[in-house]
Write a structure and sequence with these properties.
- This protein is mainly alpha-helical and about 240 residues long.
- The protein is built from eight helices and two strands, in the order E-H-H-H-H-H-H-H-H-E.
- The chain has one domain.
- It is elongated.
- The N terminus is likely disordered.
Amino acid sequence: MSVSTHQSFKSIEKVSRWLLNAIVAGIVVNILSLIVPIIQNIEFLVRNEMVLTYLGSEPFDAFLNVIATIINFVIGVVTLFWFYSANKNIHSFGAKKVSSPRMAVIWFFIPILNLWKPYTVAQQIWKASNTQTIMSEGTEWKNSPSSKKIKFMWILGLTHLLISIVFGYYFALGNVWDEFMNNEETVVNFQRFYTLIFYGNLINIVGMVLGIFFQIFYLQIVRQISLWQETIGKTDSSLKRV
């Protein structure tokens, strides 16, 4: 990639490392969160009943929820820094007709548009960071192939979001537990309650599995873009490094 630019290249290696570590931690927490609902559903399929709570499972679940909240917050904040820095670098590579670094962040906070605008920014960063893209006029990145990984990641993310909303409605708005406990025929309705928990667990499991694959794709994308940008920054003498 050969460019002539007055903008400075800034390494994203450090922020990428923070983001990658947070994503890995998120994957581990999601896998651990799958243990109880999977065991419950297997019990239901095999024995037609399930243990609703396991020894120490409630404090463990509460702990995982707190950790997951913290990790997701860190991922969200670092993602904004990463998008800003990675986008700023493609400007230093000479890319034209791409989103500005500020808009690369702002799009995340605009309702409706945040469902697809960050996706287009991610594709721009991918294309303009590709070491195979020879940038002379500044628009050559448009001819670079889009990333299927980014496409799959975004579809998984939107599907995970939809399933999370359905799961929240199923348990929170559906008042499954309250409806069961306030029923005078509670003992008779155990089977129905187990069935409700089974399908609720199933929705949750599918959502978390999709979330894990989303994180895996995100990890691979961040790692690849970071590698490309570091390679360009170290080998292109026309870039001022800060």
